Automatic annotation (TrEMBL):
Residues 4-182 form the Glyoxalase-like domain. It comes from the Bacteria. This is Glyoxalase-like domain-containing protein. PANTHER family: BLL2707 PROTEIN, GLYOXALASE-LIKE DOMAIN-CONTAINING PROTEIN. Pfam families: Glyoxalase_3. Coiled coil: none annotated. SUPFAM superfamilies: Glyoxalase/Bleomycin resistance protein/Dihydroxybiphenyl dioxygenase. It comes from Virgibacillus salinus.
Length: 203
């Protein structure tokens, strides 16, 4: 069963945006790390239902522009358009290879899997894979599968008691969406709802 992994919020100043959100919602935010191959960096807020918010920005635009990662291109395009805010979300799976087979058999175009990694402030390395199903009629969330190191803070006190309860997203065709992801809108740790733009609620 898929789970909501994280919300991606693009910002020209992720530290400032994360700090503002944290103060407004009584949420602890922490520095994430740098994605050296993509020219990006992030700040994070973790929640008790195994989900998190990522504020992402660019520290090297030349590297970011050259990236073939669809998410990084979204970040570049958003900042070029002076847009800041939620732009994407990720659904977590531990069966990415089965999704790749499913996409092939169902002739669903996709990009990936794209490997990713970053060094945490503690020095440990996080690794993951990203898979991007594609549809010409709408922007779809991507799938993420984490490696051997779990993406949680070493200090449990940095995990907020609140949860990401609902993600509202522009889903043009619900049945098609269910077919692509082989899931219902009720996920393992939260719920998807249909809206005209990407938003989320915590409680």
């Amino acid at each position: 069963m898929l789970a909501i992994d994280h919300i991606v919020i693009v910002s020209d100043n992720p530290a400032q945006a994360a700090d503002k959100f944290g103060k407004e919602h009584n949420v602890t935010v922490i520095q994430g790390g740098k994605h050296s191959n993509w020219g990006t960096y992030n700040y994070l807020a973790y929640f008790s239902n195994d989900s998190y918010i990522e504020w992402i920005g660019i520290f090297d635009k030349k590297i970011a522009i050259q990236s073939e990662n669809p998410l990084i291109q979204q970040v570049v395009d958003a900042l070029d358009d002076n847009m800041e805010g939620p732009i994407q979300y990720a659904l977590r799976t531990d069966k990415m290879d089965k999704y790749i087979d499913h996409f092939h058999k169902s002739t669903i175009p996709f990009t990936g899997p794209i490997p990713g990694s970053r060094k945490k402030p503690s020095g440990s390395i996080l690794e993951w894979r990203m898979l991007f199903p594609e549809d010409v009629t709408e922007q779809l969330p991507f799938l993420i599968e984490w490696g051997n190191v779990k993406n949680v803070p070493e200090d449990d006190r940095l995990i907020n008691e609140q949860q990401i309860h609902t993600i509202s997203a522009a889903i043009n065709n619900i049945e098609k969406f269910k077919g692509i992801y082989q899931t219902d809108l009720q996920l393992a740790n939260a719920r998807l709802s249909v809206s005209d733009k990407l938003a989320f609620s915590i409680n």
